[in-house]
Amino acid sequence: MSSVVLVENASKGVKSLTHTLGSVDLSCHVCDDPDLFGESDIPAGVDAVIIDATEVAETLLAQIIDRVRQLKLPVILVIPKKSVSNYDYSLNPDELIISPVNADELALRINRAIVMVNGPQGDNLLKIGDLMIDLDRYEVTISGRRISLTFKEFQLLALLASNPGRVYSREVLLNQLWGYDYLGGTRTVDVHIRRLRSKIEESGHSYLETIWNVGYRFIVD
Asked: How far apart are CA 110 and CA 196, in angstroms?
């Protein structure tokens, strides 16, 4: 069961989304004072935050979304139908839905937002911070953004990330991924590491560490 935080303004007495969320088997925690919304309103294990703009002042929306993004959680914004023509696109939530809300659509959009931000959930996944490696689908995402890798780049990343902290010599990497009869030499490993770094370390986070005169290892902060 997914767990969400619903940000609304209970003081207005408007019917909330709590019942709708409960009807689709979602655990819901309610923050009923948007003015005071903060990290303390998000219990451990929460998967997403829903902001009911039908009950939250427009001046608070950007502020609340920014706070949620700092916690690296997906944001679903629910807006009233009458506000569609005046919608502020700079808010840029992970999902947007118009009220009145259909329960099944809301559940679908919540789950889609969770996958977009956190990656797919499954048994054969490696998740290291914002980096998600799907070993079954040969897909890599960072903060929900898909990274395009060649097959050898993926194999190299998967091998190192599956054994964090272990140092692999260039010779071992070459033999395991290219085979003993490969004629390209160990420089091939260096080239692939460099290309891999350029793709997965764009955010400034280092995953691949060079062990001088030896090889490489995957590091976890």
From this structure: 32
Report d(CA 52, CA 3) in Å as an integer.
Answer: 16
Sheet holding 215-218, edge to edge: 168-169, 215-218, 208-211
* pTM across the whole model: 0.54
Place of tokens 């829903």: 50
Identity of the amino acid at 3: S
* Beta strands 125-128; 48-52: pairing state: unpaired
For the sheet containing 145-147, what is the strand order?
A: 125-128, 131-134, 139-142, 145-147
Structure tokens at 184: 């390209």
pLDDT in tens, 2-20: 788 888 876 554 456 777 7
| Buried/exposed 105-115: b ≥16 CB within 10 Å, e otherwise | ebbebbbebbb
Domains of the chain: 3-118 (3.40.50.2300), 125-218 (1.10.10.10)
